[in-house]
Design goal:
By secondary structure, the chain is an all-alpha fold. The protein has 14 helices and no strands. Helix 1 packs antiparallel against helix 6, helix 8 packs across helix 9 and helix 9 runs antiparallel to helix 10.
Length: 310
């Protein structure tokens, strides 16, 4: 497995070596000797070998999508054509680093309530199994009329003691059915739709998806790729089926000559600020900077909501 951090470090170091005047093959050989991941080290060696044979860096990298996805090697190709390969390598490293950081924050925000639920279930299980039965026997020995809340607590304890195992089996069965349901495309679409609409975390997921789209579009537009091609790579880069559907519709209408902001305005998924800023970018010819501004704003809002939810 090749970690994103390894590609980030490789990109920064390669940019530094190229900037210092080192030729591409020598730079790759120097980096190959320092890489600890055996799979990546082998890939870099084969990339250097292909370049010696007359293949471009981007074409050589395209053979190894595990390490260099389509967006990466297409951006590298644009950098080779524009003569600013070092700049593109740094921009790709920054882009990947932001994605890793955002992903970690979202993962931590979603993990915290899950841990709280697990701890609560364990505490309740201990109370029901060891603590409450003792109090139940004690109250029964009094022979007096108990308050309604106490009766309800005792009845709940008796129920969980007798049927708790069956209840756990039922929960596990429901979870298994739910997992089976979301595996097909239709189920995955419904799950992704739910993940964008659930309170608190849905907003965080939506902001993260939109900021990633804006950041990717800004980067690829800046290196000189055409918008239809950029949209195709943005679509390929998201795992959310709802976002994929919306972006696909926008791309089709973009190819039809409607621009970018108008198709986005017809879909509720794209928030008003994003639509307005894209429109401004199209009018002023400054789309890369306006998209970067939107991405930064959405990332800041997602970070605030993530911090407040933990």
């Amino acid at each position: 497995r090749i970690k994103p951090q390894e590609i980030i470090m490789f990109s920064r170091q390669l940019a530094l070596l190229l900037e210092s005047g080192t030729d591409i093959v020598t730079a790759l050989e120097l980096l190959q000797s320092q890489i600890t991941n055996r799979t990546l080290r082998k890939m870099i060696g084969e990339v250097a070998s292909d370049i010696r044979g007359g293949v471009s860096l981007s074409a050589a990298m395209s053979k190894y999508p595990r390490a260099f996805p389509e967006m990466y090697h297409r951006a590298i190709a644009a950098g080779e054509q524009g003569g600013n390969l070092e700049v593109v390598l740094r921009q790709m490293a920054d882009h990947m680093e932001r994605g890793v950081t955002t992903g970690k924050k979202i993962k931590n925000a979603l993990t915290y309530p899950f841990i709280v639920v697990i701890v609560a279930v364990v505490v309740i299980a201990v109370l029901v199994t060891f603590v409450l039965p003792t109090f139940t026997a004690l109250y029964a020995s009094f022979g007096t009329e108990l308050p309604l809340p106490t009766k309800m607590l005792i009845a709940g304890t008796d129920f969980l003691t007798q049927y708790g195992l069956y209840l756990l089996k039922a929960i596990a069965a429901v979870a298994g059915l739910g997992f089976t349901y979301i595996k097909p495309p239709a189920g995955k679409y419904q799950w992704d739709k739910f993940s964008l609409g659930v309170p608190i975390f849905g907003r965080i997921n939506l902001l993260s998806e939109l900021s990633r789209c804006c950041r990717t579009m800004s980067l690829l537009f800046r290196v000189g790729l055409p918008l239809p091609e950029i949209m195709a790579m943005v679509i390929h880069g998201t795992d959310n089926k709802v976002v994929t559907e919306a972006l696909t519709g926008v791309r089709q209408e973009l190819i039809g000559g409607e621009g970018l902001s108008k198709p986005m305005a017809r879909r509720e998924l794209f928030l008003p600020m994003m639509v307005q800023m894209v429109g401004v970018g199209e009018e002023t010819g400054n789309l890369d900077n306006t998209l970067a501004t939107v991405a930064q704003a959405y990332e800041a809002e997602a970070n605030d909501k993530t911090s407040s939810s933990m």
